[in-house]
Design a protein that fits this description.
The complex is a heterodimer of chains A (269) and B (158).
Chain A: E1 7-10, H1 14-24, E2 28-31, H2 37-42, E3 50-53, E4 63-66, E5 69-73, H3 78-83, H4 85-90, H5 92-100, H6 104-109, H7 112-118, H8 124-132, E6 135-140, E7 143-148, H9 149-152, E8 153-155, E9 158-159, E10 166-173, E11 180-185, E12 195-200, E13 203-207, E14 214-215, H10 217-224, H11 229-233, H12 250-266
Chain B: E1 2-7, E2 10-15, H1 22-29, E3 48-51, E4 54-57, E5 70-72, H2 85-92, H3 102-115, H4 121-127, H5 138-150
Parallel strand pairs in B: 1-5
Antiparallel strand pairs in B: 1-2, 3-4, 3-5
Helix pairs in contact in B: 2-5
The chains are: A alpha+beta (269), B alpha+beta (158).
Chain lengths: 269, 158
């Protein structure tokens, strides 16, 4: 399969990428690792006229600590996220989630910013960011704004990211020793979650239980009020209306959400 | 557009379409046919090559994205008729049946052993998660990777 023709520009810095976005606007797509965008382009589900490649912009990658937060550059690859000592110590749920994405080859290419901007509700990293209460830094012509994970995702493959904005960095709280749980139900190796659950610090996030990664708020509240893991997990699918596909109908997904939430709460690292 | 990169140790400068996928560049422009196109959807791993030492699926990388980097294909392993340790172990352990997945398996295994020279059997199986053998010849493939590891020459392939 071959993508439709496009023009290709390699950005040399974040500022250069923003200039290019201002120039090409809606006709352009930002290319990072390309492991969501290129498959869509090969299937002709996407046909941007211009690709702005930020994959080798060095000031957009890397992991640092800023006070009690970790700051992760947008083009940091999943393999580097999974292996990072800073992330494994301060946000081990995120390192674990990164190690669950696809397979080794995919993790060598895919980036955290790309995964979040792509906003697949079945994906690992959007769910992990919601569970951790992280945020994203969006840079645009008017400056940088920070959007918390709960507000970033707006619909299937949709976010608040504007066409002239660039997702530059991801922030997550660094909380060494905080217990966390992670459950991902798949039928095949290296697949997306049929349902996923990530739990950390009283927050419970669900993957593929709606158009965006969502919080299981009724279960969170019950757990905060002293309910057992099993009791709280019974409320994990409250208010959800997950989609149906060849893998699972609505009732099965809701069942999975309850079972996986119980496991995520009971088996915490 | 012009792309400069290194393939199997040789510097290349070629004029390519921006949409040219790395696997098509290797197979059709350079005649390097080891990397196979299987699923063409980033699943099967038959097109796996090394990009700056890391395993990648070349059906999901633009040639333009490889600019300035080093690509190694199965043709670039070993030295002339001398097989690399991983290639020799695949032959010794009969880690192949029809052979279609083999170049991708060998490249994925080479990258795996470079990152982790002494993997457990579980780590080998997980490390080859991105490569499908439709003959289901996995047991011999895993044995081959463990044999290459035991030979202690995994790192030398890079």
């Amino acid at each position: 399969m071959i993508p439709a023709p496009f023009d290709y520009v390699a950005a040399t810095s974040a500022a250069h990428a923003l200039d290019l976005l201002a120039e090409y606007g809606d006709d352009a797509k930002v290319l990072a690792g390309g492991h969501s965008l290129l498959p869509m382009m090969k299937l002709r589900l996407a046909a941007p006229e211009v690709l702005i490649d930020i994959g080798r912009v060095t000031d957009l990658s890397g992991i640092t600590r800023d006070g009690d937060e970790l700051v992760i550059g947008a083009t940091t690859r999943h393999a580097d996220l999974a292996a990072s000592a800073l992330v494994r110590e301060g946000a081990p749920l995120l390192a674990h989630a990164a190690a669950q994405v696809g397979d080794p080859q995919i993790r060598h290419r895919g980036t955290i910013g790309g995964s979040l901007a792509h906003a697949d509700p079945a994906a690992d990293l959007p769910m992990a960011l919601v569970a951790l209460g992280g945020s994203v830094e969006l840079r645009g012509p008017a400056g940088t704004r920070t959007v918390v994970a709960d507000d970033f995702f707006t619909g299937y493959f949709e976010t608040v990211l504007g066409p002239d904005e660039l997702l530059c960095a991801v922030r997550v709280p660094s909380r060494p020793g905080l217990p966390w749980g992670y459950q991902k139900f798949t039928r095949r190796a290296n697949d997306w979650a049929i349902v996923g659950v990530a739990a950390s610090g009283g927050r419970i996030a669900l993957a593929n239980m709606g158009p965006v990664p969502i919080r299981a708020r009724a279960a969170e509240q019950a757990a905060a009020d002293g309910a057992s893991a099993a009791q709280a997990a019974q409320l994990a699918a409250e208010g959800t209306s997950p989609g149906e596909d060849i893998h699972a109908d609505r009732a099965f997904r809701q069942h999975l959400a309850r079972v996986l939430t119980r496991r995520a709460l009971e088996h915490q690292a | 557009m012009q792309v400069n990169l290194t393939v199997n140790g040789k510097p290349r400068a070629d004029d390519v379409e921006p949409r040219l996928l790395l696997v098509h560049y290797l197979r059709e422009h350079l005649g390097l046919r080891a990397a196979n196109i299987g699923c063409d959807t980033t699943s099967c791993g038959a097109c796996t090559v090394l990009l700056d030492g890391q395993s990648v699926k070349s059906c999901t990388v633009l040639t333009a994205q490889a600019a300035g980097q080093e690509v190694i294909t199965a043709e670039g392993l070993g030295d002339g008729d001398q097989l690399s340790a991983v290639q020799a172990a695949f032959r010794q352990e009969h880690g192949l049946q029809c052979g279609f997945c083999t170049p991708g398996m060998v490249m994925a295994a080479t990258a795996l052993l470079a990152e982790n020279p002494h993997p457990t059997e579980t780590q080998v199986r997980e490390g080859l998660e991105g490569n499908f053998c439709r003959c289901t010849g996995y047991h011999n493939i895993v044995r081959a990777v463990l044999a290459a590891s035991a030979a202690g020459k995994g790192e030398a392939d890079q």
